[in-house]
Design goal:
Layout: E1 5-12, H1 17-30, E2 34-41, E3 49-57, E4 71-74, H2 77-83, E5 92-96, E6 108-111, H3 113-120, H4 126-137, H5 143-153, H6 159-171
Parallel strand pairs: 1-4, 4-5, 5-6
Antiparallel strand pairs: 1-3, 2-3
Helix pairs in contact: 1-5, 4-6
């Protein structure tokens, strides 16, 4: 966790990408890092393109957006297509293998988010699930700080299922 990170979380509105960016950012702050979070979303509240960009640094941040991402989460084909050809070979791409046709690059990991959500019994915890999947593959923040940030940002009545989804993502 002693690395600077540039992370793009991309998909469509309603998948919790902006909230997940905030949760990840706060976890990085808990770990003692500097953070920049930018987000953008389409005009449609659900279904339009949406993304959060998180820059995490041990020192000062001079540019608030991801100039050279280290990790891309692509939950839709549009998100994958927007970035896959522009990132370096060092960038890990985690994509939804049910919704994204990938290029089978050497640094790509497919995950069946829908099957996992059905296993968990709640389709609304996708952001907690993909945060777990991200931390399984890259030590961006500590598991403890992520759990603390989840508890801080998720309403108490749905914290338990969200923490379960996060843990499920870590273990898969």
């Amino acid at each position: 966790m002693s690395k600077n990170w540039q992370i793009i979380l991309a998909g469509e509105g309603g998948q919790g990408l902006i909230l997940a960016g905030r949760i990840l950012s706060e976890a990085a702050i808990i770990d003692g890092n500097s953070v920049s979070l930018t987000s953008s979303y389409g005009i449609a509240a659900r279904g339009g393109y949406s993304e959060a960009q998180v820059v995490i640094s041990e020192g000062e941040i001079y540019y608030p957006k991801c100039a050279s991402p280290d990790l891309l989460l692509a939950l839709t084909q549009q998100a994958y297509d927007r970035y896959a050809d522009k990132v370096t070979d060092d960038c890990l791409i985690i994509y939804d293998k049910k919704d994204v046709s990938n290029n089978n690059g050497k640094n790509e990991v497919g995950f069946d988010f829908k099957a996992a959500l059905l296993t968990l019994g709640n389709l609304k915890v996708i952001n907690s699930l993909f945060l777990g999947v991200i931390l399984k593959h890259r030590d961006i923040v500590s598991t403890e700080s992520m759990s603390e940030s989840l508890k801080k940002n998720i309403p108490p009545k749905i914290q338990e299922i969200n923490l379960k989804a996060f843990q499920y993502g870590l273990e898969q």
